[in-house]
Amino acid sequence: MVGRAQPDRKQLPLVLLRLLCLLPTGLPVRSVDYTRGTDNITVRQGDTAILRCYIEDRSSKVAWLNRSGIIFAGTDKWSLDPRVELERQTPLEYSLRIQKVDVYDEGSYTCSVQTQHQPKTSQVYLIVQVPPKISNISSDITVNEGSNVTLVCMANGRPEPVITWRHLTPTGKEFEGEEEYLEILGITREQSGKYECKAANEVSSADVKQVRVIVNYPPTITESKSNEAATGRQVSLKCEASAVPTPDFEWYREDTRINSANGLEIKSTGTESSLTVANVTEEHYGNYTCVAVNKLGVTNASLYLYRPGTGRVDNGSMSLAVPLWLLAASLLCLLSKC
In what residue span(s) does the Ig-like domain sit (predicted)? Predict the structure, then answer.
């Protein structure tokens, strides 16, 4: 708000005292020219506003006022605000310049002119626009599949910013409506990823921020590849699973868990695991089970190592042949970090 300092009335020139008599409440009390109406001027926060006012002759007595009181009376400055000055590019101009405009400057300003005939006023309403700014947005979160999720994005600006949400996927889905809150009921693994909040108004470019949503879900075997090999050869069985968090893998032959030893090597990287037999013997042919487990669940797939020419090599299949106690043991092992 443009402030003011009131000097001692005894020190004011006689002309200024007469002017103040016309302005006991900040506006002339008689013979006011209301035909001009109120002009609006719109300025962006931080810019300079010039409120125009012109007088009929140099003998006119003038003053600038706002809702708080007198800013200028003639050339005498009553405001303590250093941003406020007179703009007088011509002898008959009596405009007000406000630098680095802020929201508290918004409001009605009155230029009061005492001519030889009657007092007149010219009113200007200053509108201050503020670029959009996101003030608060949800932090990155991790939830389990099926949970309900609420994302929050709050923004300031004048006019009030319009808020929109978009899921940053290749399709770039933009959610309907203009809401500070984005609610996702029963979130799925496909709904994980980054969500973009955009706050926009016509003042300047939109403000954009992102929040990441990680969705945990139990493992699913996405690929299991059986293989064939002659005795004396090296061969690998491969298994791939989708899961968040990243799954741990275990390999079984019948009911026995396999470790990397005696010519067998297990390698697991991310969502893939392989069992390599360095030197195939007759004892190595048969059924193997790949088990993928994380804190949310466990799953398995059967793979086969065949003799060449049997014609039975395939891409493996999901199987529940592993005893339930083994699956439970795998999950318990993960949770206890055995």
Answer: 24-122, 132-209, 219-306
Question: pLDDT digits over 243-258, tens only?
Answer: 999 999 999 998 899 9
Label residue 171 left, alpha or beta by phi (over 0 means left) and psi (-120 to 50 means alpha). alpha
Query: Cα–chain-centroid distance for residue 330?
Result: 41
Q: Residue 229, CB half-sphere, CA atoms under 13 Å: how many?
A: 22
Count structural domains, the chain: 3
Strand 272-277 and strand 264-269: pairing?
antiparallel
Distance separating the N- and C-terminal Cα atoms of the chain: 68
267 - beta bridge partners? Answer: 274
Do 35 and 110 have their domain in common? yes
**Do 296 and 261 have their domain in common?**
yes
pLDDT one-digit tens code per residue, 163-216: 999 999 876 667 755 689 999 999 999 999 999 999 999 999 999 999 999 999
Q: Is residue 157 part of a domain?
A: yes
